[in-house]
Amino acid sequence: MSEEIKMSRGKAKLVSMICPSRGRIDLIKKTIDSVYNNAKDPSNIEFLIRLDNDDTVALSRISEITNYKLDTIVIVGERFRGYRDLHIYVNEMCALSRGEFIFLFNDDSEIVSKDWEQSLIAHRKQTIILNPFTTSSRTPPFPPSWQQPLNTFPIISRDIYDAMGHFALQAHNDSWIVALNKRLKIEKPINDIKIYHDRADKTGNNNDQTWKDRKQQWTTSRAEFDGAIYNKLRDNDYKKLCKLLGK
Question: What's the order of all strands across the beta sheet hosting 155-157?
Fold first, then answer.
């Protein structure tokens, strides 16, 4: 079914941006504004959003983000366990994506560098994980944020997703990719893509119910990430990627 939907939506894109969201339509629009306004060619980009089917306020405004400036697709589905099942939302979006690269993004974040997507072109046909520059400022100069050198917004080449069959199998999607890269060592910095992460605990902004739910569930979800079952699942992904890389 997902392949049929992708075909009906037209040609492949350079990059698919994956953004789960809850209760944050205004923030999503700000995020898309930053992606669109700073792109050299927005037609190379698609933006995928996943909303919960009990998020009545967001659903009442869904028309505001459908094809808002960018080629967008909005998925509405079950909430499951909320933040603890964030990977399910991400994998649903990835299954419908058409980009040569898959870019994990947040609805409290903005692209702040011009012509950002052009820097991906040099990495076409590479099996690679890219680490954008996360900054603590919306405007130049761009000092590093508290998140560097962690890869909070991983960009993966399409063949990595295809080989694994998913982006991640646990809520900490970025940490899943980081853990794999510790063994694979295929990550490269991509400093021409700069992201401002307007996160509540660091900036004081966006201290809303979505943030509070996330904070409440983080301890449990983090403990799950380090559990034996998820270590085994990451081992399986590691073996698949070693085969892809010819290791």
Answer: 71-77, 45-52, 13-20, 99-104, 155-157, 129-135, 187-197, 109-111
Q: How far, CA to CA in Å, does 223 sit from each of 54, 98, 228?
A: 27, 33, 10
Mean pLDDT of the region 222-244: 97
**Residue 2 — very low, low, confident or very high, per pLDDT cuts 50/70/90?**
very low
Show me where the domains of the chain are located.
2-245
CATH value of 2-245 in 2.60.40.1530, 3.50.50.60, 3.90.550.10, 3.10.350.10: 3.90.550.10
> Cα dist. 145→25, 59, 70 in Å?
25, 33, 27
Task: Report d(CA 164, CA 238) in Å as an integer.
Answer: 9
Q: How far apart are CA 95 and CA 219, in angstroms?
A: 28
Q: With contact defined as beta carbons under 8 Å apart, do 127 and 243 qualify?
A: no
* Radius of gyration, alpha carbons of the chain: 17
